[in-house]
Amino acid sequence: MKKSSQVAVVITALLAVLLLVALSTSVSLPAATRFLASFDLRWPFQERFECLSLSYTTEIISLDPLLIYIHGFLSPQEIAGILAAGEDRFEPSTVYRNGELIQNPYRTSSSAGLPDDDPAVSCILGRARKFLGTTLDPVADEMGIPQLVRYTQGQHYDLHRDWLRVPQQAFDGSARVFNRPASFFAILQDNCTDGETWFPFVEPVRPRDRGELWRRHEEGGLAFKPVAGNALFWVNLFANNTGDDRTVHAGLPVTGGLKTALNIWPRKYWDSIDPE
Ligand SMILES: O=C(O)CCC(=O)C(=O)O
């Protein structure tokens, strides 16, 4: 039976049940309607998200600092799921200043924190966690709150680093502090002009351009084009857990269209402010 016929059969059956319930009991029609509406009627028909293992491939761009280009990190279905999870949540992006989140002209995009219990979001967090291997402690550490970032014409994010100069106090009330040992930056929507991600201090292992994916930037380092489904992964902290300034990077201005990406900032915890 076609999907539309199935929908028609189920809706008719539900309406019949509704009428019978209302007629044969003292339950009013509006109350019976509310009861039925509390079920997700789309359930048998909606596209169910399935977390499939994906055979992405990796390319080491730089060894020191470690920066890896991940081809095919997200499937089109995953991208659609993640966008759906965040679409209603966009707000002007903020940055940390003296322990406070503020809006600032050096970051003019909008951002959306994602619910980690959404099936598409948790699927990607699981994949990223696996990618990190033993970088995180399976019990103490966390994947952090994944965040969408969206740029329209003229929007950008000036040079910044993802690691925290002063490790952040845990949000669970404990005395622990955390920092961000590594970052994932995955592109979801690339129908834009420009908007590359620029790392001025990253030198490629092999001195070559990959025109369609990245290029040498005229002021140094590498600039990566936004390509939907692909991701960058880099390590923010040295082995002694201090931050690596060479990981500074920028979202260059989008000059037209729309760029949407996913940030994942894993959290590594310590018991005290001294991370060593
Ligand atoms: O948009 C970009 O290319 C980089 C964004 C970024 O670094 C961030 O959101 O932390």
UniProtKB/TrEMBL annotation:
- Which Pfam families does UniProt cross-reference here? 2OG-FeII_Oxy_3
Question: Which superkingdom?
Answer: Eukaryota
GO MF annotations, alphabetized? iron ion binding; L-ascorbic acid binding; procollagen-proline 4-dioxygenase activity
Statement: the UniProt record of this protein carries the keyword Oxidoreductase: yes
Q: Which cofactor does it need?
A: L-ascorbate
Membrane spanning residue stretches: none
PANTHER family linked:
PROLYL 4-HYDROXYLASE ALPHA SUBUNIT (PTHR10869), PROLYL 4-HYDROXYLASE ALPHA SUBUNIT DOMAIN-CONTAINING PROTEIN (PTHR10869:SF242)
Write the protein's name.
Prolyl 4-hydroxylase alpha subunit domain-containing protein
Protein species of origin: Neoarthrinium moseri
